[in-house]
Write a structure and sequence with these properties.
globular, four-stranded antiparallel beta sheet, mainly beta, Neuraminidase
């Protein structure tokens, strides 16, 4: 595998990369904006907000959904769903299902005040903005992926050291929770056509391709001093692994001062599948 190359430099803190309609999309969390990137590397600001943003998705009709980390989801840039009553310590990543609902992960504890990770629900946002609990007792639900047939949801539990999998019913109900793979603390994930997951090992300095059960099949190490944050498989053939990395842990002031987060890319053998 060739060494990664830089696609988008100079971000405060990149998050939530998605491949959508022939473009790479991602949030620049602490500059409060959503970006898209074309094949030539030209960057477009798709949304500018006044607070940190993270997870991205789209409605079946094509409207952009954006997680505002203090506990809100925007649709088309406008307030859509209020998650604060169910997530008092903030929300992070999100995945949208083609059936019209989205799942949103939450921290579940006061990470700024020195609290310890606490089990908390994975939240569901329906197409009318209604917020419900989709599954209980997740330890910092973070990156997520949905299989190509829409029947399986994968959730990275950062504080749980595992990727959990759920069966998805026709109505979006989750059941049959199981551990897909034990892993070091995971951040973002994406799925490939062989049913394996690329995982951002935020504490390990590498993106790893993991099979069910935890076997590591491929590894892309990041430069010393950088941290793997999130990833997505994109490009015309979905064989380009886009990797978001940073030199900070996501703190706002340090990230804005450094402006060193970036998107890197490398070609891989197995194409992406499902979402993101």
């Amino acid at each position: 595998m060739a060494a990664p190359t830089v696609v988008v430099p100079g971000l405060a803190f990149g998050e939530g990369p998605r491949w959508h309609e022939g473009r790479l999309w991602l949030s620049d969390m602490h500059r409060h904006r959503v970006l898209s990137v074309d094949a030539a590397g030209a960057v477009t600001v798709e949304l500018q907000h006044d607070a940190p943003v993270s997870g991205l998705g789209w409605t079946p009709s094509g409207e952009l959904l954006t997680v505002v980390m203090d506990g809100e989801v925007l649709r088309g840039g406008e307030p859509f769903a209020d998650l604060r009553p169910s997530a008092p310590h903030g929300v992070n990543d999100m995945i949208s299902h083609p059936g019209g609902w989205s799942w949103v992960g939450q921290f579940g504890y006061d990470r700024h005040g020195g609290g310890a990770p606490t089990p908390a629900p994975l939240l569901r946002v329906d197409d009318d903005g209604r917020v419900t609990s989709a599954a209980d007792d997740l330890l910092v639900a973070n990156g997520m992926a949905v299989s190509a047939d829409g029947a399986t949801l994968f959730v990275a539990e950062s504080a749980g050291g595992r990727i959990s999998a759920f069966s998805v019913g026709d109505d979006g109900a989750l059941s049959a929770r199981r551990t897909f793979a034990p892993v070091p603390p995971p951040d973002g994930i994406c799925l490939d056509a062989d049913g394996c997951l690329w995982v951002a090992g935020v504490t390990t300095g590498a993106f790893v391709r993991v099979a069910e059960g935890g076997g590591v099949l491929d590894t892309v190490e990041v430069e010393p001093g950088r941290r793997p944050i999130a990833c997505v498989l994109g490009g015309d053939d979905r064989r380009t692994l886009y990797m978001v990395t940073a030199t900070t842990k996501g703190e706002a002031e340090a990230s804005i001062a450094a402006m060193s987060s970036r998107v890197e890319q490398v070609r891989v053998d197995v194409a992406g599948a499902g979402r993101p």
